[in-house]
Amino acid sequence: xxxxxxxxxxxxxxxxxxxxxxxxxxxxxxxxxxxxxxxxxxxxxxxxxxxxxxxxxxxxxxxxxxxxxxxxxxxxxxxxxxxxxxxxxxxxxxxxxxxxxxxxxxxxxxxxxxxxxxxxxxxxxxxxxxxxxxxxxxxxxxxxxxxxxxxxxxxxxxxxxxxxxxxxxxxxxxxxxxxxxxxxxxxxxxxxxxxxxxxxxxxxxxxxxxxx
Length: 212
Fold this sequence. Notes:
By secondary structure, the chain is α+β, with helices and mostly antiparallel strands. The protein has helices spanning 8-12, 17-23, 30-43, 66-81, 152-176, 179-191, 199-206, and strands at residues 49-53, 90-98, 111-114, 117-123, 139-147. It contains seven helices and five strands. It is flat.
């Protein structure tokens, strides 16, 4: 069945019935057992819990990997709450969104026709485009943090740690960027009600978290 991905005709014939075929397979290989466990979790809705999602960020200014973010968040959880989690306790997903052309404006690649030249297509120069279609961001990313189990306290800790890490990261951006960029980011932060804080302030803010 795994070879169907190389044969589009065979692939289109696959249905949800393949899930039951995998579950009832007698093959004891590790890969098959892992697949069975995943399917069983889907059937029983034993899914990871999304505990945090960042505001949209400009992808061209972001260079951290999911592993780096996860490590920083787990360190922040230990710093703020004195708890130690393993890398298998949470998952970080960095999702990139664009129009299929990274940072480029897809409209600039379109061919347009004129009523004066119905048989001739051309690219629309930026100087001729409406000012409403001015500078825009054509790609962004979201950072999501998932807890691998549904323990309420663990979800709360990961959520607070992720928020604290994000605020610290934004604070670092504000210190390194130029004045116009800094003003723009500050306006965005205010609109999203995000205030960078020190680790000490985080401790005071989250000290009321019930860890029992």
